[in-house]
Amino acid sequence: MLRKLPGFMTRLIGRGSSTRLPVPDIHTRDHHTISRKDISKPALDVLYGLHKAGYKAFLVGGSLRDLLTGGHPKDFDVATDAPPEAVEKLFRRSRIIGRRFRIVHVYFGRDVIEVATFRALADDHDEQRQSDDGMLLRDNVYGTIEEDALRRDFTINALYYNIADFTLYDFVGSLKDIEKRRIRLIGDPETRYREDPVRMLRAARFAAKMQFDIDPATEKPIHQLNELLYQVPAARLFDEVLKLFLGGYARQSLASLQQLGLLEILFPSLAHHLHDSADKQVWQRMLEAAMDNTDARLARGKPVTPAFLYAVLLWPDVRARYQQLCDSGMPAAPAMNKAATAALQEQLQVTSIPKRFSSVMRDIWALQTRLHVRHGNRAEALVTQPKFRAGYDFLLLREESGELEPGLGDWWTRYQDAHPDQREAMASKVKPSGGKPRRKRRRRRKPRPDSGGDD
Ligand code: ATP
Ligand code: MG
What we know:
Strand 9 and strand 10 (168-170) form a beta hairpin. The longest helix is centred in the C-terminal third of the chain and has 22 residues, at 306-327. Helices cover 48% and strands 10% of the residues. The termini are far apart. Helix 7 runs parallel beside helix 9 (234-245), helix 13 (280-299) packs antiparallel against helix 14 and helix 16 (355-370) packs across helix 18 (388-400). The strands form three sheets. An eight-stranded mixed β-sheet has the order 3-10-9-4-5-8-7-6. A two-stranded antiparallel sheet has the order 1-2. By secondary structure, it is α+β, with helices and mostly antiparallel strands. It contains 20 helices and twelve strands. The radius of gyration is 27 Å and the shape is elongated.
């Protein structure tokens, strides 16, 4: 008996015993909105270069998704039937890169076009390519465009634009999902997450970036399989974190990660403080404020540094450890140093943090104790430190979120604006102090009339 199957399954055709390949919906030029004027010159050069050499050449993936949703692609990826060596020969300034995926980078000034050869599907029985848990280790077996489409992650990332006749190929219901603003994995979600757990983070990221919903069948396994991310190399997770938080939609990414139970994997100590500490609202506010600042800076074309972001993400942990060490009698500076080392060590179990960033994070944290000590010529020495600005911004963030009573940040704002004579006068009024950051006082239920001062 014939049963009606949903969506693209109806268009699957048989091939061999186990692989069933999709037949694409092909939309001719007058039936879609992808136009060559929206494609960068370098990308067009690569597409035409391949085409003229007799190869198939398609624009693929994220750039088409972004163009169809009114966004601006940040890069253009090309898929072809030409093997990497042939692509490399064809373009003078190009290089084969990658081990897990071998792709060719073609360089045009500061632009890079990524050219990937159509890849075959993972075979369940191929032990060379898969770990015991089903994770893909290598993915360099070349295949057809149909296979290539099925091994992409989400339907919204699997459209192909053919430079030969400007048609748009839709193998897996991509256009419908874009229209419905829906993120859906291609194939069986659990298998696809086991092959590459980073797809869970990618789901979170695209949901945040596009403001799309994650299809329930794609979302559900994430809550059960989130711990598979521990198998992913720490350096790759570091890169993914940067894409989540430095792509201009950090606030949404944070919400998305929290909602999917992925923040607790990437930042276990942070997630713990957001759930269980007495100050959880403070930390949530601090994070959101930091993410908003990051997004606002990026929107204005200003630079952002992973060090500042990571300094924020690890701060609740550093702060708790620091407080404990101070309470046990350790002076502020060594306590902060020790707290920083411990927090960094724990985070490095999950995501790497290159030294050039962790050393800046340490400076930012160390300044949180040092910014209290302003008497004599200390303030002047601090303000000329290379990391002063980041430490000061961090202090403002802590005050803004209510972790600290406001005051110190404002003092430093005025100090920076002041004339040298005024600076001296300001510093002379500050009493030498131990340099420990004060906790915000809890408001008493019945404020006493004389409770104005903090000292
Ligand atoms: P953006 O560049 O905006 O982050 P993108 O979709 O271009 O988004 P890339 O990481 O550049 O993402 O990857 C390019 C394409 O490669 C994707 O659109 C997708 O088709 C495919 N792809 C990337 N990562 C994976 C993965 N982990 N599993 C399967 N396919 C993937
Ligand atoms: Mg891309």
